[in-house]
Design brief:
It is a single chain. With 219 residues, the chain is mostly helical. The protein is 43% helix and 3% strand. Strands 1-2 form a two-stranded antiparallel sheet. Strand 1 and strand 2 form a beta hairpin. Helix 2 packs across helix 4 and helix 2 (21-39) packs across helix 5. The protein is globular and about 40 Å long. The protein starts with a helix and ends in a 14-residue tail after the last helix.
Amino acid sequence: MLEANDVASVVLARSGTWMDAMRLQKLLYYVQAWHLAVTDEPLFAEQIKAWKDGPVVPQVWHERKDQATRSADVQSVEDIELDETTSNLIDLVLASYGSMSGEELSALTHVEQPWLEARGDLPENAECRDPISAETMARFYRANRKLGGRTASDLAAAGIYVRAHRTDGGPIDVDSLLAAIPEDDDLGDDCWGGASLDPGDQYRSAGIVADRRRAYAEQ
Protein backbone atom coordinates (compact mmCIF):
# COMPACT_ATOMS: atom_id res chain seq x y z
CA MET A 1 0.00 0.00 0.00
CA LEU A 2 1.21 3.49 -0.82
CA GLU A 3 1.89 6.19 1.73
CA ALA A 4 -0.30 9.28 1.63
CA ASN A 5 2.72 11.48 1.01
CA ASP A 6 3.58 9.41 -2.09
CA VAL A 7 0.07 9.94 -3.42
CA ALA A 8 0.44 13.66 -2.68
CA SER A 9 3.63 13.68 -4.77
CA VAL A 10 1.80 12.11 -7.72
CA VAL A 11 -1.09 14.57 -7.41
CA LEU A 12 1.32 17.49 -7.35
CA ALA A 13 3.45 16.19 -10.21
CA ARG A 14 0.44 15.62 -12.44
CA SER A 15 -1.09 18.99 -11.61
CA GLY A 16 1.87 20.60 -13.37
CA THR A 17 2.08 23.60 -11.08
CA TRP A 18 2.44 24.80 -7.49
CA MET A 19 -0.52 24.01 -5.24
CA ASP A 20 -1.69 25.57 -2.00
CA ALA A 21 -2.00 23.25 0.99
CA MET A 22 -5.77 23.35 1.28
CA ARG A 23 -6.29 22.33 -2.34
CA LEU A 24 -3.74 19.52 -2.05
CA GLN A 25 -5.47 18.11 1.03
CA LYS A 26 -8.89 18.12 -0.60
CA LEU A 27 -7.65 16.48 -3.82
CA LEU A 28 -5.89 13.85 -1.71
CA TYR A 29 -9.18 13.25 0.09
CA TYR A 30 -11.11 12.82 -3.15
CA VAL A 31 -8.50 10.43 -4.54
CA GLN A 32 -8.85 8.27 -1.42
CA ALA A 33 -12.65 8.56 -1.39
CA TRP A 34 -13.05 7.49 -5.00
CA HIS A 35 -10.49 4.71 -4.66
CA LEU A 36 -12.55 3.36 -1.77
CA ALA A 37 -15.78 3.73 -3.72
CA VAL A 38 -14.48 2.00 -6.85
CA THR A 39 -12.19 -0.71 -5.43
CA ASP A 40 -13.47 -1.06 -1.85
CA GLU A 41 -9.84 -0.68 -0.72
CA PRO A 42 -7.96 2.35 0.61
CA LEU A 43 -5.13 3.72 -1.51
CA PHE A 44 -3.14 4.72 1.58
CA ALA A 45 -3.33 3.69 5.23
CA GLU A 46 -3.15 7.09 6.93
CA GLN A 47 -6.39 8.34 8.43
CA ILE A 48 -8.12 11.43 7.09
CA LYS A 49 -9.21 13.70 9.93
CA ALA A 50 -12.30 15.92 10.02
CA TRP A 51 -10.55 19.25 10.65
CA LYS A 52 -12.76 22.32 10.82
CA ASP A 53 -11.99 23.37 7.23
CA GLY A 54 -12.48 19.94 5.73
CA PRO A 55 -10.67 16.60 5.42
CA VAL A 56 -6.93 16.57 6.20
CA VAL A 57 -4.20 13.93 6.33
CA PRO A 58 -2.12 15.35 9.23
CA GLN A 59 1.08 13.55 8.18
CA VAL A 60 0.97 15.20 4.76
CA TRP A 61 0.09 18.57 6.28
CA HIS A 62 3.24 18.45 8.42
CA GLU A 63 5.42 17.17 5.58
CA ARG A 64 4.17 19.83 3.16
CA LYS A 65 4.17 22.96 5.32
CA ASP A 66 6.95 24.50 3.26
CA GLN A 67 5.59 25.97 0.03
CA ALA A 68 8.56 24.56 -1.88
CA THR A 69 7.38 21.00 -1.14
CA ARG A 70 4.16 21.65 -3.05
CA SER A 71 5.69 22.53 -6.39
CA ALA A 72 5.10 20.09 -9.23
CA ASP A 73 8.64 20.29 -10.56
CA VAL A 74 10.33 19.08 -7.34
CA GLN A 75 8.31 15.89 -6.95
CA SER A 76 10.17 12.60 -7.21
CA VAL A 77 7.70 10.03 -8.48
CA GLU A 78 9.88 7.67 -10.53
CA ASP A 79 9.91 5.02 -7.79
CA ILE A 80 6.22 5.29 -6.91
CA GLU A 81 4.47 2.28 -8.44
CA LEU A 82 0.85 2.69 -9.47
CA ASP A 83 -1.35 0.08 -11.04
CA GLU A 84 -3.37 1.12 -14.08
CA THR A 85 -6.61 1.55 -12.13
CA THR A 86 -5.00 3.83 -9.55
CA SER A 87 -3.10 5.84 -12.13
CA ASN A 88 -6.20 6.45 -14.21
CA LEU A 89 -8.27 7.20 -11.11
CA ILE A 90 -5.87 9.96 -10.02
CA ASP A 91 -6.06 11.47 -13.49
CA LEU A 92 -9.85 11.34 -13.44
CA VAL A 93 -10.06 12.97 -10.01
CA LEU A 94 -7.76 15.75 -11.19
CA ALA A 95 -9.82 16.20 -14.36
CA SER A 96 -13.05 16.38 -12.35
CA TYR A 97 -12.01 18.34 -9.25
CA GLY A 98 -8.67 19.88 -10.18
CA SER A 99 -10.02 23.12 -11.63
CA MET A 100 -11.63 24.05 -8.31
CA SER A 101 -9.80 26.18 -5.76
CA GLY A 102 -8.94 24.99 -2.27
CA GLU A 103 -11.74 27.09 -0.80
CA GLU A 104 -14.33 25.64 -3.17
CA LEU A 105 -13.19 22.08 -2.49
CA SER A 106 -13.32 22.76 1.24
CA ALA A 107 -16.85 24.13 0.90
CA LEU A 108 -17.90 21.08 -1.08
CA THR A 109 -16.66 18.66 1.59
CA HIS A 110 -18.64 20.66 4.18
CA VAL A 111 -21.95 19.59 2.65
CA GLU A 112 -21.05 15.93 2.12
CA GLN A 113 -21.86 13.19 4.61
CA PRO A 114 -18.39 11.79 5.44
CA TRP A 115 -17.04 15.03 6.94
CA LEU A 116 -20.37 15.95 8.53
CA GLU A 117 -20.74 12.53 10.14
CA ALA A 118 -17.23 12.62 11.62
CA ARG A 119 -17.87 16.09 13.05
CA GLY A 120 -21.15 15.08 14.67
CA ASP A 121 -22.69 17.86 16.75
CA LEU A 122 -19.52 19.95 17.02
CA PRO A 123 -19.88 23.67 16.30
CA GLU A 124 -18.71 24.64 12.85
CA ASN A 125 -15.45 26.24 13.99
CA ALA A 126 -14.60 23.67 16.68
CA GLU A 127 -11.31 21.81 16.45
CA CYS A 128 -11.62 18.09 15.69
CA ARG A 129 -9.17 15.20 15.50
CA ASP A 130 -11.71 12.48 14.73
CA PRO A 131 -11.10 10.36 11.62
CA ILE A 132 -13.48 10.28 8.70
CA SER A 133 -14.87 6.79 8.24
CA ALA A 134 -13.55 4.94 5.20
CA GLU A 135 -16.79 2.95 5.09
CA THR A 136 -18.86 6.12 4.99
CA MET A 137 -16.65 7.57 2.25
CA ALA A 138 -17.06 4.47 0.10
CA ARG A 139 -20.80 4.27 0.65
CA PHE A 140 -21.49 7.97 0.12
CA TYR A 141 -19.61 8.39 -3.16
CA ARG A 142 -21.02 5.16 -4.56
CA ALA A 143 -24.56 6.24 -3.86
CA ASN A 144 -24.52 10.00 -4.34
CA ARG A 145 -21.78 11.15 -6.71
CA LYS A 146 -20.39 10.58 -10.19
CA LEU A 147 -16.80 10.90 -11.34
CA GLY A 148 -16.38 11.97 -14.94
CA GLY A 149 -20.09 11.38 -15.42
CA ARG A 150 -19.93 7.75 -14.25
CA THR A 151 -20.86 6.06 -11.00
CA ALA A 152 -18.36 4.08 -8.95
CA SER A 153 -20.11 0.90 -10.05
CA ASP A 154 -19.72 1.89 -13.71
CA LEU A 155 -16.05 2.65 -13.17
CA ALA A 156 -15.47 -0.67 -11.41
CA ALA A 157 -17.25 -2.65 -14.11
CA ALA A 158 -16.05 -0.89 -17.26
CA GLY A 159 -12.65 0.35 -16.15
CA ILE A 160 -11.37 3.84 -15.48
CA TYR A 161 -10.34 6.14 -18.28
CA VAL A 162 -10.21 9.90 -18.65
CA ARG A 163 -12.50 11.53 -21.16
CA ALA A 164 -11.70 14.87 -22.80
CA HIS A 165 -10.66 17.40 -20.18
CA ARG A 166 -13.53 19.45 -18.83
CA THR A 167 -13.28 23.15 -18.09
CA ASP A 168 -16.55 23.56 -16.25
CA GLY A 169 -15.41 22.07 -12.94
CA GLY A 170 -16.59 18.53 -13.63
CA PRO A 171 -19.92 16.77 -13.29
CA ILE A 172 -20.54 17.68 -9.65
CA ASP A 173 -23.55 19.92 -9.08
CA VAL A 174 -22.02 22.26 -6.53
CA ASP A 175 -24.46 25.14 -7.06
CA SER A 176 -27.08 23.71 -4.74
CA LEU A 177 -24.53 22.16 -2.39
CA LEU A 178 -22.63 25.39 -1.74
CA ALA A 179 -25.87 27.24 -1.07
CA ALA A 180 -25.84 25.54 2.33
CA ILE A 181 -22.50 27.07 3.34
CA PRO A 182 -22.92 29.81 5.98
CA GLU A 183 -21.78 33.32 5.13
CA ASP A 184 -20.81 34.52 8.63
CA ASP A 185 -17.56 32.70 9.39
CA ASP A 186 -14.95 34.74 11.25
CA LEU A 187 -11.73 35.65 9.52
CA GLY A 188 -8.74 33.52 10.52
CA ASP A 189 -4.99 33.40 10.15
CA ASP A 190 -3.86 31.53 7.04
CA CYS A 191 -1.09 29.16 8.08
CA TRP A 192 -1.51 27.10 4.93
CA GLY A 193 0.89 29.00 2.74
CA GLY A 194 -1.55 30.98 0.64
CA ALA A 195 -4.77 29.09 -0.04
CA SER A 196 -5.93 31.98 -2.15
CA LEU A 197 -6.06 30.90 -5.76
CA ASP A 198 -8.49 32.93 -7.84
CA PRO A 199 -11.19 30.48 -9.01
CA GLY A 200 -11.77 32.55 -12.14
CA ASP A 201 -14.84 33.76 -13.96
CA GLN A 202 -15.93 30.25 -14.92
CA TYR A 203 -17.05 29.62 -11.33
CA ARG A 204 -18.79 32.94 -10.93
CA SER A 205 -20.76 32.32 -14.09
CA ALA A 206 -21.77 28.91 -12.77
CA GLY A 207 -23.11 30.43 -9.58
CA ILE A 208 -20.32 29.19 -7.31
CA VAL A 209 -18.93 31.67 -4.82
CA ALA A 210 -15.55 30.89 -3.25
CA ASP A 211 -15.34 31.58 0.47
CA ARG A 212 -11.92 33.16 0.91
CA ARG A 213 -12.38 33.54 4.64
CA ARG A 214 -11.68 29.91 5.51
CA ALA A 215 -8.24 29.19 6.86
CA TYR A 216 -6.64 26.20 8.48
CA ALA A 217 -5.16 26.21 11.96
CA GLU A 218 -2.82 23.47 13.11
CA GLN A 219 -4.50 20.91 15.31
